[in-house]
Design goal:
Chain B: This is Acetoin:2,6-dichlorophenolindophenol oxidoreductase subunit beta. The complex is a heterodimer of chains A (about 300) and B (about 325). With about 300 residues, chain A is α/β, with parallel strands linked by helices. Chain A is about 45% helix and about 10% strand. In chain A, helix 2 (about 30-40) runs parallel beside helix 3 (about 55-60), helix 2 (about 30-40) packs parallel to helix 9 (about 195-210) and helix 4 (about 65-70) packs across helix 12 (about 270-290). With about 325 residues, chain B is an alpha/beta fold. In chain B, about 40% of the residues lie in helices and about 20% in strands. Classes of the chains: A alpha/beta (about 300), B alpha/beta (about 325). Chains A and B meet through helix 5 and helix 6 of A and helix 3, helix 5 and helix 6 of B.
Chain lengths: ~300, ~325
């Protein structure tokens, strides 16, 4: 969670100061979800992400050096600079790709799960998507197919209650995404995303059930996004009052875990600070790595076809 | 096409179906998805040949996920019409994942798209929009015109490591012809279907048999070379230019409307090459559909879509 937080704080300031181009969608505030779900991600499992994907990538084990180099558009990036923030993929880590089209990665996860099922593996494919993706028909179609064919997909909806310029209550006719899963016969749990321990437990139950017999599951992680929707759109109205935002910050998954660990004696406060320092150093190292990395050459990539 | 001893005569539709079965048999990673799966395939291949709900965006997206994880899915869209629903998955995902991922992954998916008019199915079901797909970098597009090419190109498409859209003009479905065993037609290679010296007639898909008939009809007066690109992206510009340099004239016949079409691209590729351009003895001509939604009414459908007579007329006008 600390690495996710420090990575996205850095990414946001890098793009805002013009050191990197394009846009990033910061995951700040939502880390409990990727960290909790990522904790049950095993070698051989696969993951599909969305536009807010840095935390998911870190949870899958993608190296921050290669992620940062990707944000810098450098050859050392996990996609050799061809994809950038919204398309980070690392097939060696089972990370099939972040995605710039809302909802579109969900059928890829179901296809990957069909692939695993055809080969008889007891692997799980995790499909991260936001509550806003419930407006996309392809997400419903994908749930139907996964349920119909009992495919090993763990759907993870990160319900932050807001989709770029709209509040979920403005755009969804039902109250919870879990209801949508229920309509497709998919068992689900709704968890507080700020409680990483609970997210992890829920993900473990779901993954165990999937590994031992197939049928897909859904976890609806109720999370808070504190940062802007995207670095480019920092001034976008976000429907939340100052009080709501302050309350969201008080539900910080990192502070909550830190307090719990100190309270039960697992970690002392200096040890927590030390972990944070390591995360910051890793991100600084990643920026240095990225800046040292050369720009890619088009001739060496499929960017030059021939098609 | 010379019929080889091992060739079997079969219809265009049967050739396509046979190739899917043969490829599924020899490569366990080949699988098929579609709202209509031939019962024989389903019986033989079980879970690898799946009947799907009418969910084109999801099924097309599933193919992307399958392809990313080592499978070779063949999606049978049933009609190009239904694939418009799934544009996002083809254009934003299948076509781009290889490049965006920095070559970490290939997407060896095949999308089979029956297309074109001739059956009175009216505007929504009578379309030949291969140029829309050819416009997209990252996709390859084939339009076979005979049972042998259908078998050979589809086999090559299934074995190819990047996504291929296979357009199958419905007018050709019952056309019968020899199909050599294991026939393979490399992607990107045009074929000279008939040699000639006065006019190069480039014909696409369903226009190829009509072009051959037109060439026969005019054979006393005009010597026509019929060139079938077979793959419209990438186009085999070398074969087309070489033919035009020999004949000095070009007519392009395509069932799609001329606007932003493959026919337009062929003319551009011919005229922008100075050597080929200077060999031209007449302005290039296109025989295409009218720029209209295809009407239901039979005489109107015939009027909108090009036929043999229009090809003959265009060639007569050119050599006058
Ligand atoms: C198909 C599509 N429509 C619109 C957009 C623009 N867009 C990007 S992110 C976003 C909001 C998505 O909300 P949600 O899925 O809930 O994720 P969140 O941003 O809240 O994490 C929108 C509308 C897009 N990328 N894709």
């Amino acid at each position: 969670m600390l690495l996710m937080r420090r990575f996205d704080e850095a990414a946001l300031s890098l793009v805002q100061s013009g050191r990197i181009r394009g846009t990033v969608h910061p995951y700040i505030g939502q880390e409990g979800c990727a960290a909790g779900v990522g904790a049950v991600f095993e070698p051989g499992d696969l993951m599909v992400s969305n536009h807010r994907g840095h935390g998911h990538c870190i949870a899958a084990g993608v190296e921050v050096d290669r992620m940062m180099a990707e944000l810098f558009g450098r050859a050392g990036g996990s996609c050799h600079g061809m994809g950038g923030s919204m398309h980070i993929a690392d097939f060696e880590r089972g990370m099939l790709g972040a995605n710039g089209i809302v909802g579109a990665g969900v059928p890829h996860a179901v296809g990957a799960a069909l692939s695993l099922a055809l080969d008889g593996h007891d692997r799980v494919v995790i499909a991260f998507f936001g509550d806003g993706a419930t407006g996309q028909g392809v997400v419903f179609e994908s749930m139907n197919l996964a349920a119909l064919w009992s495919l090993p997909v763990l759907f993870v909806c990160e319900t932050n209650g807001i989709a770029s310029a709209s509040a979920l209550t403005e755009v969804l006719a039902v109250e919870t995404v879990a209801e949508i899963a229920a309509a497709h016969g998919i068992a689900s749990e709704r968890v507080e995303g700020a409680d990483v321990v609970e997210v992890r437990a829920s993900a473990q139950r779901a993954a165990d059930a999937i590994r031992s017999g197939g049928a897909p599951r859904l976890i609806e992680c109720v999370v808070d996004r504190w940062g802007p929707h995207a670095s480019r759109l920092a001034a976008m109205p976000d429907h939340r009052s100052a009080e709501d935002l302050a309350a969201a910050r008080r539900r910080d998954p990192i502070a909550r875990l830190r307090e719990a660990l100190i309270a039960d004696g697992t970690l002392a406060s200096p040890a927590c600070d030390e972990l944070d320092r390591e995360a910051r150093e890793a991100v600084e190292g990643a920026i240095a790595f990225a800046e040292m990395s050369p720009y890619p050459e088009l001739a060496k990539t499929s960017g030059r076809g021939p098609w | 096409m010379v019929s080889e001893p091992t060739a079997k005569t079969m219809s265009y539709a049967a050739a396509l179906e046979t190739v899917v079965a043969e490829e599924m048999r020899q490569d366990p990673s080949v699988c098929m998805l579609g709202t209509m799966v031939p019962p024989a395939l389903a019986a033989e291949f079980g879970p690898r040949a799946r009947v799907t709900p009418i969910s084109e965006p999801a099924v097309t997206g599933l193919a992307v996920g399958l392809a990313q994880t080592g499978k070779r899915p063949v999606v049978y869209w049933r009609n190009i019409t239904f694939a418009f629903n799934a544009f996002d998955q083809v254009i934003n995902h299948a076509a781009k994942l290889r490049s965006m991922s920095g070559d970490q992954v290939r997407v060896p998916a095949v999308f089979r798209a029956p297309c074109g008019g001739g059956h009175g199915l009216a505007a929504q079901h009578s379309q030949s929009p291969y140029s829309i797909y050819a416009h997209i970098a990252g996709l390859k597009v084939v339009v076979p015109s005979s049972p042998a090419d259908a078998a050979g190109l589809l086999r090559a498409a299934i074995r190819h490591d990047d996504p291929v859209v296979c357009f199958e003009p419905v007018r050709l479905a019952d056309a019968a012809g020899p199909v050599p065993q294991g026939h393979l037609v490399p992607l990107g290679e045009a074929e000279v279907k008939r040699e000639g010296s006065d006019v190069t007639l480039v014909a696409v898909g369903s226009m190829v048999p009509l072009a051959l008939e037109a060439a026969e009809e005019l054979s006393g007066d005009v010597s026509i070379e019929v060139v079938d690109p077979r793959t419209v992206s990438p186009l085999d510009v070398t074969t087309i230019r070489a033919s035009v340099r020999r004949t000095g004239r070009i007519v392009v016949a395509d069932e799609a409307p001329a606007m932003c079409s493959v026919a337009a691209e062929v003319v551009a590729l011919v005229t922008e090459d100075s050597e080929t351009f200077s060999a031209l003895r007449a302005a290039p001509a296109r025989v295409c559909a009218l720029h209209l939604p295809v009407p239901f009414s039979e005489p109107l459908e015939e009027e909108v879509l090009p036929g043999r007579d229009e090809v003959v007329g265009a060639i007569r006008a050119l050599v006058r």
